[in-house]
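Dear colleague,

Following up on yesterday's call, I've attached the two folding results inline so they're easy to grep. Please treat them as preliminary; we haven't cross-checked anything against experimental data yet. The first protein's sequence and structure tokens come first.
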Amino acid sequence: MNTNILQNIRLKKNQKKGFTLIELLVMLLVISIIVGIFTILFRRQPNSRQIKELATQNLKVFSESQGLEPIRCNDNDPDKNGYTNCTAKNQKTELLDLECTYKKQQPSCQVLEKKSE
């Protein structure tokens, strides 16, 4: 009986501890999928500095083509439609509210309404 117990103890010591190759590959696959999803999610959302920078560039281009003086653009997109609010002056010194996109692929602005100074 003692020899049986000793043999069991020796067998347990000889068994290797750790993960099998399949288990490691499955873990690596799951981690890769999670990282990929988070990368896609965070890459699509520009930060406030990028929004302001790109919208201001688009405002300058639009203002030059329309004879306006660019004033400023906001650094956020509250309704998540790809546009942020900007302001420009026309030649009569009226303030104009505009919406300018902050996407490089589709630079555009549109006039919303006029405000008097």
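Below is the second protein, in the same order (sequence, then structure):
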Amino acid sequence: MKVLRMESDMIGIDLVKIDRFKKSKDSLIKKIFSEKEIREAKLGIFYKKLAGKWAVKEAAYKAGIKNKIEVLNVNEKPCIFINQKIYNAQISLSHEKEYAIAIVFH
């Protein structure tokens, strides 16, 4: 049986420890997150939000999205933006005590 694999059907997953961002310097945070991402994270529990955004970025990379991305909420759901345009991907993001986990499918 021949199985076809479409390059666009890829999945990535990442697990991040929230404390990792509590120990990060501001200069590192400003290097890996955009101003919009940082501003949005400040609306919630800051380090928890940053960890979630980082988990999405890493999962997206593992799913084959190699562009520089932003992770911003649209209607309270995380979305991937490339060059200020929304990217068609499905995201699942969750937080539990010490960890954030994300799955990206596109």
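For the second protein, one point worth flagging: The longest strand covers residues 11-17.

Best wishes,
A.L.
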